[in-house]
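Journal club prep, notes for RB
We'll compare a predicted complex against what the paper describes. Inputs for the adenosine-5'-triphosphate case:
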Amino acid sequence: MSLLEVSGLGIAFGGLMAVNDVSFAVKPGEIVSVIGPNGAGKTTLFNMISGIYRPGRGAVRLNGEDVTGEAPHRLAEKGLSRTFQNLQIFQEMTVLDNVLAGYHLQERGPIWADLLSLPSMRRRATIARDGARALLERVRLDKTEGQQAGSLSYGSLKRLEIARALALNPKILLLDEPAAGCNAVETEEIDHLITELAGSGIAILLVEHDMKLVMRISSHIIVLDHGEKIAEGDPATVSRDPQVIAAYLGAGQEEEAEC
Ligand SMILES: Nc1ncnc2c1ncn2[C@@H]1O[C@H](COP(=O)(O)OP(=O)(O)OP(=O)(O)O)[C@@H](O)[C@H]1O
Protein backbone atom coordinates (compact mmCIF):
# COMPACT_ATOMS: atom_id res chain seq x y z
CA MET A 1 0.00 0.00 0.00
CA SER A 2 1.12 3.56 -0.68
CA LEU A 3 2.36 5.62 2.23
CA LEU A 4 1.75 8.95 0.52
CA GLU A 5 -0.93 9.54 -2.07
CA VAL A 6 -1.27 12.85 -3.84
CA SER A 7 -4.35 13.21 -6.04
CA GLY A 8 -5.34 16.08 -8.30
CA LEU A 9 -3.30 18.57 -6.30
CA GLY A 10 -3.41 22.17 -7.47
CA ILE A 11 -2.90 25.76 -6.36
CA ALA A 12 -3.07 29.14 -8.07
CA PHE A 13 -1.22 32.35 -7.19
CA GLY A 14 -3.23 35.20 -8.66
CA GLY A 15 -3.98 34.07 -12.20
CA LEU A 16 -1.05 31.63 -12.34
CA MET A 17 -1.72 27.91 -11.89
CA ALA A 18 1.59 27.09 -10.09
CA VAL A 19 0.62 23.40 -9.73
CA ASN A 20 -2.23 21.84 -11.67
CA ASP A 21 -3.84 18.43 -11.19
CA VAL A 22 -0.76 16.53 -10.02
CA SER A 23 -1.19 12.94 -8.80
CA PHE A 24 1.30 10.29 -7.73
CA ALA A 25 2.03 7.85 -4.90
CA VAL A 26 5.06 6.87 -2.81
CA LYS A 27 5.54 3.49 -1.13
CA PRO A 28 7.74 2.72 1.92
CA GLY A 29 11.41 2.45 0.96
CA GLU A 30 10.91 4.11 -2.43
CA ILE A 31 12.90 7.11 -3.63
CA VAL A 32 10.58 9.26 -5.75
CA SER A 33 12.06 12.39 -7.32
CA VAL A 34 10.21 15.44 -8.59
CA ILE A 35 12.13 17.19 -11.36
CA GLY A 36 11.43 19.97 -13.83
CA PRO A 37 12.84 23.28 -15.07
CA ASN A 38 13.02 26.37 -12.81
CA GLY A 39 9.55 27.58 -11.89
CA ALA A 40 7.94 24.22 -12.80
CA GLY A 41 6.16 24.04 -9.43
CA LYS A 42 8.35 21.57 -7.51
CA THR A 43 8.74 23.58 -4.29
CA THR A 44 5.09 24.65 -4.39
CA LEU A 45 4.10 20.99 -4.64
CA PHE A 46 6.34 20.20 -1.64
CA ASN A 47 4.83 23.10 0.29
CA MET A 48 1.32 21.74 -0.28
CA ILE A 49 2.25 18.20 0.70
CA SER A 50 4.06 19.35 3.87
CA GLY A 51 1.26 21.66 5.04
CA ILE A 52 2.95 25.00 4.39
CA TYR A 53 0.39 25.88 1.68
CA ARG A 54 -3.22 24.73 1.77
CA PRO A 55 -3.96 23.19 -1.65
CA GLY A 56 -6.57 24.95 -3.77
CA ARG A 57 -7.78 21.56 -4.95
CA GLY A 58 -6.99 17.88 -4.62
CA ALA A 59 -6.02 15.71 -1.68
CA VAL A 60 -2.99 14.42 0.26
CA ARG A 61 -3.31 11.06 2.01
CA LEU A 62 -0.81 9.73 4.49
CA ASN A 63 -1.18 6.04 5.39
CA GLY A 64 -4.70 6.19 3.94
CA GLU A 65 -5.73 9.17 6.09
CA ASP A 66 -6.78 12.44 4.46
CA VAL A 67 -4.30 15.04 5.76
CA THR A 68 -4.91 17.74 3.15
CA GLY A 69 -3.95 21.18 4.48
CA GLU A 70 -2.93 19.94 7.95
CA ALA A 71 -0.23 21.99 9.70
CA PRO A 72 3.42 20.84 9.41
CA HIS A 73 3.65 19.85 13.12
CA ARG A 74 0.52 17.67 12.80
CA LEU A 75 1.99 15.99 9.73
CA ALA A 76 5.28 15.47 11.58
CA GLU A 77 3.36 13.65 14.34
CA LYS A 78 1.85 11.44 11.63
CA GLY A 79 5.23 10.57 10.13
CA LEU A 80 5.99 13.20 7.48
CA SER A 81 8.97 15.49 7.90
CA ARG A 82 10.99 17.64 5.51
CA THR A 83 14.10 19.68 4.90
CA PHE A 84 14.22 23.02 3.12
CA GLN A 85 16.02 24.35 0.04
CA ASN A 86 17.67 27.01 2.24
CA LEU A 87 19.37 25.57 5.30
CA GLN A 88 17.37 25.96 8.52
CA ILE A 89 20.28 25.23 10.85
CA PHE A 90 20.98 27.21 14.05
CA GLN A 91 24.55 28.19 13.19
CA GLU A 92 25.45 29.37 16.74
CA MET A 93 24.32 26.14 18.41
CA THR A 94 26.34 22.93 18.61
CA VAL A 95 25.76 20.14 16.13
CA LEU A 96 24.19 17.98 18.88
CA ASP A 97 21.86 20.77 20.04
CA ASN A 98 20.62 21.25 16.47
CA VAL A 99 19.47 17.63 16.40
CA LEU A 100 18.02 17.94 19.92
CA ALA A 101 15.95 20.88 18.64
CA GLY A 102 14.26 18.31 16.38
CA TYR A 103 13.47 16.12 19.40
CA HIS A 104 12.01 19.03 21.35
CA LEU A 105 9.47 19.55 18.56
CA GLN A 106 7.88 16.28 19.67
CA GLU A 107 8.20 16.82 23.45
CA ARG A 108 4.93 16.15 25.20
CA GLY A 109 5.58 16.95 28.88
CA PRO A 110 3.93 19.79 30.78
CA ILE A 111 6.06 22.93 31.02
CA TRP A 112 6.11 22.90 34.87
CA ALA A 113 7.70 19.43 34.86
CA ASP A 114 10.51 20.86 32.77
CA LEU A 115 10.90 23.91 35.00
CA LEU A 116 11.08 21.77 38.14
CA SER A 117 13.53 19.46 36.40
CA LEU A 118 11.55 16.38 37.43
CA PRO A 119 13.24 12.96 37.09
CA SER A 120 10.82 12.05 34.30
CA MET A 121 11.97 15.06 32.30
CA ARG A 122 15.63 14.32 33.02
CA ARG A 123 15.08 10.75 31.80
CA ARG A 124 13.49 12.04 28.61
CA ALA A 125 16.38 14.44 28.08
CA THR A 126 18.84 11.53 28.37
CA ILE A 127 16.83 9.45 25.89
CA ALA A 128 16.72 12.40 23.45
CA ARG A 129 20.47 12.95 23.82
CA ASP A 130 21.23 9.26 23.14
CA GLY A 131 18.86 9.32 20.16
CA ALA A 132 20.45 12.48 18.77
CA ARG A 133 23.91 10.91 19.06
CA ALA A 134 22.71 7.80 17.21
CA LEU A 135 21.33 10.01 14.43
CA LEU A 136 24.60 11.91 14.16
CA GLU A 137 26.34 8.57 13.74
CA ARG A 138 23.84 7.63 11.05
CA VAL A 139 24.65 10.79 9.04
CA ARG A 140 28.37 10.40 9.86
CA LEU A 141 28.65 13.54 11.95
CA ASP A 142 29.23 11.88 15.35
CA LYS A 143 32.78 13.23 15.57
CA THR A 144 31.48 16.82 15.38
CA GLU A 145 28.73 16.78 18.03
CA GLY A 146 30.35 19.46 20.24
CA GLN A 147 31.31 21.81 17.39
CA GLN A 148 29.40 24.94 16.56
CA ALA A 149 27.20 24.10 13.57
CA GLY A 150 28.42 27.21 11.72
CA SER A 151 31.93 25.71 11.54
CA LEU A 152 30.79 22.69 9.48
CA SER A 153 31.30 22.35 5.73
CA TYR A 154 28.25 22.91 3.54
CA GLY A 155 27.82 19.20 2.81
CA SER A 156 27.94 18.41 6.54
CA LEU A 157 25.29 21.06 7.24
CA LYS A 158 23.03 19.41 4.67
CA ARG A 159 23.45 16.07 6.47
CA LEU A 160 22.85 17.76 9.82
CA GLU A 161 19.55 19.06 8.54
CA ILE A 162 18.59 15.54 7.50
CA ALA A 163 19.55 14.27 11.00
CA ARG A 164 17.26 16.86 12.58
CA ALA A 165 14.38 15.84 10.30
CA LEU A 166 15.03 12.20 11.30
CA ALA A 167 14.61 13.11 14.99
CA LEU A 168 10.88 13.22 14.26
CA ASN A 169 11.10 9.53 13.33
CA PRO A 170 9.47 9.99 9.92
CA LYS A 171 7.95 7.31 7.73
CA ILE A 172 8.39 9.68 4.79
CA LEU A 173 11.05 12.33 4.37
CA LEU A 174 10.72 15.20 1.91
CA LEU A 175 14.13 16.51 0.83
CA ASP A 176 14.20 19.84 -1.02
CA GLU A 177 17.47 20.04 -2.98
CA PRO A 178 19.67 18.13 -0.51
CA ALA A 179 22.70 18.29 -2.83
CA ALA A 180 22.37 21.95 -3.89
CA GLY A 181 25.70 23.74 -3.41
CA CYS A 182 27.53 20.48 -2.60
CA ASN A 183 30.75 19.40 -4.30
CA ALA A 184 31.18 15.93 -5.88
CA VAL A 185 32.36 14.26 -2.64
CA GLU A 186 29.58 15.83 -0.56
CA THR A 187 27.00 14.83 -3.18
CA GLU A 188 28.22 11.24 -3.00
CA GLU A 189 27.82 11.29 0.80
CA ILE A 190 24.25 12.56 0.38
CA ASP A 191 23.65 9.85 -2.24
CA HIS A 192 24.80 7.11 0.20
CA LEU A 193 22.76 8.57 3.03
CA ILE A 194 19.52 8.80 1.03
CA THR A 195 19.98 5.28 -0.35
CA GLU A 196 20.63 3.96 3.16
CA LEU A 197 17.56 5.72 4.59
CA ALA A 198 15.36 4.26 1.85
CA GLY A 199 16.95 0.86 2.52
CA SER A 200 15.76 1.12 6.12
CA GLY A 201 12.17 1.52 4.87
CA ILE A 202 11.77 5.30 4.97
CA ALA A 203 10.00 6.65 1.88
CA ILE A 204 11.90 9.52 0.26
CA LEU A 205 10.37 12.29 -1.83
CA LEU A 206 13.09 14.34 -3.42
CA VAL A 207 13.33 17.63 -5.31
CA GLU A 208 16.79 17.92 -6.82
CA HIS A 209 18.45 19.67 -9.76
CA ASP A 210 21.49 17.36 -9.87
CA MET A 211 20.29 15.06 -12.64
CA LYS A 212 23.13 12.56 -12.23
CA LEU A 213 22.14 12.06 -8.59
CA VAL A 214 18.44 11.84 -9.47
CA MET A 215 19.01 9.28 -12.24
CA ARG A 216 21.29 7.21 -10.01
CA ILE A 217 19.13 6.88 -6.91
CA SER A 218 15.47 7.29 -7.92
CA SER A 219 13.06 4.38 -8.11
CA HIS A 220 10.51 6.63 -9.81
CA ILE A 221 10.58 10.15 -11.27
CA ILE A 222 7.77 12.69 -11.65
CA VAL A 223 8.41 15.46 -14.20
CA LEU A 224 6.69 18.82 -13.85
CA ASP A 225 6.59 21.64 -16.38
CA HIS A 226 4.56 24.82 -15.94
CA GLY A 227 2.83 23.20 -12.95
CA GLU A 228 1.65 20.12 -14.85
CA LYS A 229 2.91 16.55 -14.63
CA ILE A 230 4.25 15.87 -18.15
CA ALA A 231 5.85 12.46 -17.53
CA GLU A 232 6.62 9.84 -14.90
CA GLY A 233 8.42 6.53 -14.75
CA ASP A 234 11.77 4.96 -14.00
CA PRO A 235 14.95 6.97 -14.73
CA ALA A 236 15.65 5.31 -18.09
CA THR A 237 12.10 5.90 -19.36
CA VAL A 238 11.93 9.51 -18.19
CA SER A 239 15.34 10.49 -19.55
CA ARG A 240 14.32 9.27 -23.04
CA ASP A 241 10.91 10.98 -23.01
CA PRO A 242 10.74 13.57 -25.83
CA GLN A 243 8.43 15.85 -23.82
CA VAL A 244 10.89 15.86 -20.92
CA ILE A 245 13.86 16.60 -23.17
CA ALA A 246 11.88 19.40 -24.89
CA ALA A 247 10.89 20.92 -21.53
CA TYR A 248 14.51 21.08 -20.38
CA LEU A 249 15.88 22.30 -23.71
CA GLY A 250 13.06 24.84 -24.04
CA ALA A 251 13.83 26.22 -20.61
CA GLY A 252 17.52 26.55 -21.51
CA GLN A 253 18.50 24.77 -18.30
CA GLU A 254 22.09 23.95 -17.51
CA GLU A 255 21.06 20.51 -16.39
CA GLU A 256 19.76 18.05 -18.96
CA ALA A 257 17.29 15.27 -18.37
CA GLU A 258 19.49 12.79 -20.19
CA CYS A 259 22.80 11.86 -18.59
N1 LIG B 1 4.20 32.44 -2.85
C1 LIG B 1 4.10 32.63 -4.17
N2 LIG B 1 3.38 33.67 -4.67
C2 LIG B 1 3.27 33.84 -6.01
N3 LIG B 1 3.82 33.04 -6.93
C3 LIG B 1 4.55 32.01 -6.48
C4 LIG B 1 4.74 31.74 -5.09
N4 LIG B 1 5.50 30.64 -4.96
C5 LIG B 1 5.80 30.23 -6.21
N5 LIG B 1 5.24 31.05 -7.12
C6 LIG B 1 5.29 30.88 -8.58
O1 LIG B 1 4.84 29.57 -8.85
C7 LIG B 1 5.61 28.98 -9.88
C8 LIG B 1 6.27 27.70 -9.37
O2 LIG B 1 7.31 28.07 -8.45
P1 LIG B 1 8.17 27.01 -7.65
O3 LIG B 1 9.07 27.76 -6.74
O4 LIG B 1 7.26 26.00 -7.03
O5 LIG B 1 8.98 26.31 -8.81
P2 LIG B 1 10.22 25.30 -8.69
O6 LIG B 1 9.99 24.23 -9.69
O7 LIG B 1 10.42 24.89 -7.28
O8 LIG B 1 11.42 26.25 -9.15
P3 LIG B 1 12.99 26.18 -8.78
O9 LIG B 1 13.54 24.97 -9.46
O10 LIG B 1 13.53 27.44 -9.38
O11 LIG B 1 13.11 26.14 -7.28
C9 LIG B 1 6.62 30.04 -10.34
O12 LIG B 1 6.08 30.71 -11.45
C10 LIG B 1 6.72 30.96 -9.14
O13 LIG B 1 7.05 32.27 -9.54
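Talking point for the session: The longest strand covers residues 16-26.
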